[in-house]
Every structure is written in C-alpha cells, then in structure tokens.
Amino acid sequence: MSIDKVIRAVSLPEDPKDVPSVSLHVLAKNAEFVLGRLLDNVGHLVQEVRVILNDTTDASKNVIRAKMDRWPKTLLDVQHVTSESHPRFYFMDDLDAYQVGPSLDGEEFKGPFTNAPLLCDWAGVRNLGWSSTCDWRLFLDADDLVADPNKLPGLLVVLSDLQADIVATKYVFGRGRSGTVNSMSYRERLARNVSGIKWEGKTHEVLIGGLRNVFVEDCLVVTDMKDNWGKGVRVPGRCFKVLYREARLADWKVGPRHLAYLVQESPGMMPLEWVTKSLLPAYAAVCGNAEEKAWVLCMVGEMHEAREQYVEAALCYDEAVEVYPSAKAAFRLCRAFFMQENWTDCIKAYELGLKFLKELGVLDLGPVYEDSSKILVASAHHQLGNHEEAKFFVEEAAKLFPKAAAVAALRDKIFGKKG
After folding, report:
1. If DSSP states are collapsed to H, E and C, what string results for the chain?
2. What pTM was estimated for this model as a whole?
3. Tell me, what's the pLDDT at 359?
4. Which one of 40, 43, 133, 179 has the largest count of C-beta atoms within 10 Å of its C-beta?
5. Does the pLDDT at position 232 exceed 80?
C-alpha cells in the first residue's frame, strides 16, 4: 500500500455528528473461542457484520448468531467456504502440486504435506464477503482486538472529510510477558465503499484500488492476540506452499513483494542455503523498495542468528542499515555484535537504532528490539568498565522487564562491581 498521507495525531470530534455507517468483515476458521470477544470489542459500532467461515467445523456460526442477538437491527451475513463449495480456491497439498513449472535453482520442496485440499486464495475468499451497504468497511481478523474501538465513529468522520479511500493503522503482533510489543507494522483496516477497492494476493493479501491512501499512527490500534487455537487452524507452511507454487507456475516472474514473503515464510520449509544462495539473489535482482530490502535482509539475518551464525547475521544487518535507516536492523546488529563480544560496536549499533527511530517505518517497527537492546548495552558498558552507563541502562531494562531473572542478575552484578 503506497502512502499518500500520514496522520501522526488525529484530532477527533468529542461528540461526532452524522457518523458514516460501517460494516465489519471477518475471515475465520474454527474461531469459536475468539469471535465472541471480537464482537464484544466492535460489534456495537457497526451496522453490518459479514463473516466468511472457511473449512470451519466448530460452533463459530452459533457463537456469532448468539452474540448478534444483542444488536437485532445489525445486518448479519455468514458464508461458508470449503473445497467442495468453492474448489477454485484450493489445490491438493501433495508432492505433485509443487512439481508444476520450473524450480528456482534445481531445488525440490519436500513438504511436509497434508495430502488434503489447501486454501490457496485468501484474497478471493475475502472478496466473497466484501459486499456492503455501508459507507465504510472495517476489516479485522477473528483473534484481533482493537485497543481504542470507541474512537472509530470520530475517525470515520475525519477520514470522510479527508476523502480517504484506504486507511492503514498500527498493527501489533503479540506482546511479551512484560507487555512489550513483539513486532508492529501497519495494515489496512478501513476502506471506503466504492467500486474498484478489493483484495488482491493469494496470501498476505492487501487492499488495492484506492485513490487516496492514508496511514493513521495514533488511532484504531489493533493487536493480533494470536490465541485462536481452534482445531485445524494452522496448516504447516501454508503461506510458503501457496507462494512457492505460484512462483513456479509463473516461471518465477513474480513481483519483489512475492519473493520477500517467500523469504519470510521459508524457515522450516526450505534450507537456509537455498534462501541465501538462490532466493535472496532472485529477490535482489528485482527489488526496488529500500525499506523492503532492509526488511528482507533482517529476516535472513534472523535465520543466521537461529543457527548461531552471528558473523553472517551481522553482515545482513549491516547491509540492511546501508540501504535504509531501519531501527530494527540497527538493533539486531547490536545483538549480533554483542554475541561476538564486540562491545564497542554493539553500543554504536544501539545508538544508530535510536537515531533511526525517528524515521517512518511501515513494514516492521519492532519496538521490542529497542527494549531488549538496553540489556545488551548495559552488559556491554559493564564489560568496557563504563560503570555509570551500565547502571543507567540496566535500570532502564529493569523497568521494562521487572520480572526477568536475567535482568535482575545483571543489575546485581553491575551494582555489585561498583560497590
């Protein structure tokens, strides 16, 4: 999604008048344990609820209907999608499915396979439930939770005045035990109900067709709670499988974002050597977005870290920093240097990350990287004999991670050395 306008601070009307109508659109699978919470969260603010249940065998539909009894005037539409009712959205997940078209570099995808139909067109399914009679459409996943739902009416008034078409807001991907955000980016949340705006993408689907795309930083913040553990919700490697098969069908003439997502989904599906020697060069040959390239390099760096290959990881992060002022890349570089006991460069990378925090990032803001880096910097200063700096950073880390035994032990060590 391209940015036409960034709204950093939204001034909402206190008592909005003539609020535009809005419909809620959800795609879910076996989500009976979370759908009720979602409707409690935003159901009172919408005039329509349209849900697509794909391959669902639990009581999701009953949960929805029972919850919607609270709002009898709200239009409800629930559709079911299966491989039998909509075979065009599926392929058989077996070895033969991935033998179509040429390989990228002689590789063979060896599974695992389910030997069952696999949903392979999320945009197509979402578009089935994209009809609306309202002015705006709100998109959420079943296990999402809006932090500030009651800001929606005022936000709709402001966005309508701006003549916005597609609106992205901050999206938080889970939180740690201390409440620290693990990862954060932007995702499309609202779309004006005009012709031409629709979902595109077999996986990692996005909205297209808007003439004026807006990013909102401080309003309608959504958290992926990651707690929909219904039966059969996750097929192993489902996104990789769809992306890899589509790339082979297209003779690998796919866009850079397609290849970027393949990198993201490769761990556990393909060897790291294939990612670095085949997939990454293929991506680099067509990439044109500096932030995206930095994001991809960070993902490869994290794959090296998982193997304790910290020199290779640092090279990836260093290249990412060179192509785009990515705070995440700098903070990950801080960690890679720390693991090599390069205390001075560890601290320098952290300071670089602080500098880059001022830059607008869209793909992955990664606040957790800044917070966890404080622990590393505290230890690095301690190793260098910088006592006051070490004390400062370990105190900051202790505030962020008050229950972390490792932080407490580091704090005792630093203050004990001073005493």
Report:
1. CCCCEEECCCCCCCCCCCCCCEEEEEEECCCCCCHHHHHHHHHHHCCEEEEEEECCCCCHHHHHHHHHCCCCCCEEEEEEECCCCCHHHEEECCHHHHCCCCCCCCCCCCCCCCCCEEECCHHHHHHHCCCCCCCEEEECCCCEEECCHHHHHHHHHHHHHHCCCEEEEEEEECECCCCCECCEEEEEEEEECCCCCEEECCCCCEEECCCCEEEECCCCCEEECCCCCCCCCCCCCHHHHHHHHHHHHCCCCCCHHHHHHHHHHCCCCCCHHHHHHHHHHHHHCCCCCHHHHHHHHHHHHHHHHHCCCHHHHHHHHHHHHHHCCCHHHHHHHHHHHHHCCCHHHHHHHHHHHHHHCCCCCCCCCCHHHHHHHHHHHHHHHHHHCCHHHHHHHHHHHHHHCCCCHHHHHHHHHHHHHHC
2. 0.91
3. 74
4. 43
5. no
